[in-house]
Amino acid sequence: MTTSFITGAHIPRRTFVRGMGATVALPLLDAMMPAGPGRWGRAAAALEDRTRLVCIEEVHGVPGCSEWGASQHLFAPETIGRNFRMTDANVLKPLERFQDYLTIISNTDVRMAEAYEPNEIGGDHFRSTAVFLTQCHPKQTQGSDIYVGVSLDQLQARRFGQDTALPSLQLCIENLGQGGGCWYNYHCAYTDAISWASPTEPLPMIRDPRAAFDLLFGAGGSNEERAVRRRTNQSILDWIVDEVATLRARVGTEDRNRLDRYLDNVREVERRIQKVEEFNSSGEQRELPEAPAGVPDSFAEHMELMFDLQVLAFQTDMTRVVSFKMGRDASNRIHPESGTTTPFHPASHHGNSEEAILDFNQIAQYRMSPLPYFLEKLQASMEGDANLLDKSVIVWGSPMADGNVHNHRRCPLILMGHGNGLLEGDVHLKAPDGTPMANVFLSLLHRLGHEDMDSFGDSTGEFALGYPGAAVAAAQSSSR
Description:
- Helix content is 32%, strand content 13%.
- The strands form four sheets. An eight-stranded mixed sheet has the order 4-14-5-13-12-3-9-6, sandwiched between helices.
- It has 15 helices and 14 strands.
- Helix 6 runs parallel beside helix 10.
- It has 480 residues and is α/β, with parallel strands linked by helices.
């Protein structure tokens, strides 16, 4: 990757402005486009392969994957195909206004998360996360000889992320990185990492928005520089004022407006992080006393900050691949904003009580509620003639189905965005019984440019993502 500075009328796409300890990449500007008629059209064609990929894991499954929950359509809509309708209690109801961007895939299995040997029974929570994006069965060990598989996001980063500053970005919401042995004789790496660069190399995940912000913007090249900036309460943008002024003088009105909006967004995200840090360092009682100062106590606020950082990273093409872990298996976190104070993990063990399933559903629907914020931000971010939601694929799912019995059959999975035309949206696809989730991931990888892959995880073939009529027919045939 080459780093360019402002030296002429035409600005290279990979341009940064630098100050002491600050390195700020720029969004796509008119000045970065080739001169002449139709320059945006040619630029858009050149950017077509820049499909962004986000992989989001939810833990504990969803209530709609229990037998009664499925009958109430708490996850899978009642109808298959296009123009589906969601009940008010459907866990995906918060996403309804983005239905044109939704591809719901129901009835796929994650059998690699099941127990293969008697001594693996009961360890579902402690191997599931490692299975989600690898679709491989983890080796049961507490030693250094961990082994699972290469994750979907890392396959994409390896092939299409090497010319970006960060080939991939790994984020999380809850405390991870415990290291060593966890329960049921599984290494904690299996519980803590959804991204695997190799079968033996889990990638660490960032929980603190401050750490993610500093990674993206080089906010302080050393501990000393960071300490100076925070003592003076200066924004990273204060360190690049002169460089930004020089840039603004060289570009047109539209570019100045676009640049100002982008820098305003950067400053606003930084301001919100600072506000969280100030409160969490004030001595006031915290809901999450063990969390770093930059981590909000509010689940929704934390999620939104992490989504904002992902949007900024995509706008500047700092990375095109993100994995995001929404929780840690067996988490007892309480979400009073959901309307219930039942802890998350105990709520998933609902005992098939209809009342308890609906209680768990309140939590699941609340945890889904920040997703529209992310989709809205992507949709509002233009790159050439298309918005980032049109240019992205967001995978959301769980390697567990019914948390009450630690079941991995008929797991929840949705795809969001259009992925530069890879996905049509507004469709519910029901897989034939026994279909591995890996089949969906194999088909998605093929559409993302991995046509040479013959298999992925425990895949048995492709899944017809692009031909909803065929998928509907297959699902209806299997249900007869």
